[in-house]
Amino acid sequence: MTLTRRAAAAALAIAAMTAGPALAQTTITIQHPLPSASHYGVGAAALKESFERATAGRYRVNIQRNDNEREIVESVQIGTVECYIGSTGPVGNFVPGVRVVDVPFLFRDYAHARGVLDSEIGQGLLQQFNARGLVGVIWMENGFRHLTNSRREVNSPADVRGLKVRTMENQVHMRAFTTLGALPTPMAFSELVPALQQGTVDGQENPIPVIVANNLNQVQRYLTLTSHVYSPGLLICNPAMMQAMSPADRAAFMAAARAGQQANRDRVSSDDASGVEELRRRGMQVVTQVDTAAFQTALAAAFTQYERELDAATLRRIRAWQPN
Ligand code: EAX
Description:
The chain is of the alpha/beta class. The protein has helices at about 5-20, 40-55, 70-80, 110-120, 120-125, 155-160, 170-180, 190-200, 210-215, 240-245, 245-280, 290-300, 300-310, 310-320; strands at about 25-30, 60-65, 85, 135-150, 165, 185, 205, 220-235, 285. The protein contains 14 helices and nine strands.
């Protein structure tokens, strides 16, 4: 080897030994069940942008779609996926105390729901995740759920009787539809459209943002704005991921989660405002005037069971909550 080549090799060796440690980058995967342009997708994107900027790229957030919410929560619990953004639908099967927020007609409107969930009531429910191998980071939002079906216009509780309705894997929702005389059929979101196409079920219930984002108008003819239950969203993460963060990075992650919550809620508000007209334009027949009191009366037996089986004190606190 000539002198010049030896000198170059020595210089490279010295440079390699004196260079600082390679910039270590940690990847966090967030999975959610909807299109990237949906209310969950924009929430995840806002979190990603905020956290990657705050950590100067030491963290990278990888966003993936997985339309089986129960499967994602299981993956977060075992640590193969770091975080979940989705509805509380199947979450009551992992954290039973969360079922209390799935009770029909519990939340008066969006201000009531967001206020309660951001208050000590909602924060207390998030604390319950810790004992179940999960971290309930922040409440997100899915929206008020409405009924669609392909058989008939639904104007009253009696019109629901006999309908095969897909529900989430959620005992609280299933009890409500059984009480109305429907035939609730629980399944993951991933199975919904094939079930509607094949006629396995007649209908389903979801917030306007979900119906619009997934073009459910292509497989459902009738929409009734029942607003029968508010569907909270959640950002749930794996405990080991949170514990591995420095206090400063954890604070940055919480700030990013708040940015994600705001983007998510803003998108639900805008989708709710424009989505019904969009679904009419796409050909759905929409019933807007719904006798809510008639549905609440028809659910009386279910409410009695909820008071017995769920945390009645928390139900009372939620109903009594007022903005200060
Ligand atoms: O969270 O499964 C459902 O009906 C949910 O509303 C949907 O996955 C969005």
